[in-house]
Amino acid sequence: MDEEISVAPVTPQSPLGLFGTDSLIGEEDRAIRDTVRRFVEDKVKPKLGDWYEAGSVPARDLAKELGSLGVLGMHLTGYGCAGTSATAYGLACMELEAGDSGLRSLVSVQGSLAMFAIWRYGSEEQKQRWLPAMAAGEAIGCFGLTEPDFGSNPAGMRTRARRDGSDWVLDGTKMWITNGSVADVAVVWAQTDDRVRGFVVPTDTPGFSAPEIKKKMSLRASVTSELVMDGVRLPESAVLPDAAGLSGPLSCLNEARYGIVFGALGAARDCLETTIAYAREREIFDKPLAAYQLSQAKLADMSLELGKGMLLALHLAGLKDAGSLRPEQVSLGKLNNVREAIAIARECRTMLGAAGITLEYPVMRHANNLESVLTYEGTSEVHQLVIGQALTGDAAFR
């Protein structure tokens, strides 16, 4: 005898609750996640619409609050860093981006790019000078790799560092740099007569400037800047001693991409939960929008992709905690989760109708932000080619 599908009312579940993903997360990591979630809900979300509309964010105040929260460089050890698991860091990124991609970008650039570069490749003097202050949010860092004409191909960078006696002199321009205009220190990568090298550059060094990029339609609650080096003179001690070649900056990017694997899901989850709540309250033709089959089909499909993305993220987190996560696996996560997140945001926008384009709801803001997340830290096309090379053994970048 065929079983009948139950039509009795049931208690609604959250999309990730349907997958039971909390059972895959340890108690300590869940506690960290919940602390970050409360911070975002109570301190940040009520202000995000205004920040986004104004195209301005109190980055220095936020950095200090995030430092007090313990999320800046949280996955690093020593020098005032919390030394959490990779899983906890990923979950924190998810909660931060459930607020706004710009918020998670501030934390990612600070911890996974600027701080990680100094922590992994810096001298002890550089670590002692910068990392404790950066972990506390007292100093803000940025990461200068991308140039106006060289994004996906950093090997073509034109920024150069030349020897002048015992000093180095930097000349060049970097573009699309998060935190640049508010940073106290910039990790800048430049061509030398030998190889690409990294430099720790205090932003008050003569010849350094960081004009802010305005008129953005995405990541408006985030500081984005150009970096200009015009005869920036640095001592030998400014060089990152343990980084030579592109492997240094690319390893930093891999750290940041890992956070995006989780972060993008936070934006998608916030869109989906907002849309479910809206659909249950919105009456159309004398019944809730949520009670229509087409609505439920859309919600089911979006929840399925969100849950699959979460399972993938947690699997990659386990590999990272075990020390076995490979760059091409991070590309899998970044490609899939950002692609599905932006699809969810767009679908949710349609379900909210005209209300979906206002800042009263977060959906359009998330969708616009994810347009940037889709292309930074490696475009979707680049990650497809990374995966293709892993599958075939042939590089198709040129």
TrEMBL record:
Residues 142-232 form the Acyl-CoA oxidase/dehydrogenase middle domain. Residues 245-391 form the Acyl-CoA dehydrogenase/oxidase C-terminal domain. PANTHER family: GLUTARYL-COA DEHYDROGENASE, MITOCHONDRIAL (PTHR42807). The keyword Iron does not apply. Belongs to the acyl-CoA dehydrogenase family. The lineage of its organism: Bacteria, Bacillati, Actinomycetota, Actinomycetes, Kitasatosporales. The keyword Cytoplasm does not apply. Pfam families: Acyl-CoA_dh_1, Acyl-CoA_dh_M, Acyl-CoA_dh_N. Residues 27-138 form the Acyl-CoA dehydrogenase/oxidase N-terminal domain. InterPro entries: Acyl-CoA_Oxase/DH_mid-dom, Acyl-CoA_Oxase/DH_mid-dom_sf, AcylCo_DH-like_C, AcylCo_DH/oxidase_C, AcylCoA_DH/ox_N, AcylCoA_DH/ox_N_sf, AcylCoA_DH/oxidase_NM_dom_sf, Glutaryl-CoA_DH_mitochondrial. This is Glutaryl-CoA dehydrogenase. Its cofactor is FAD.
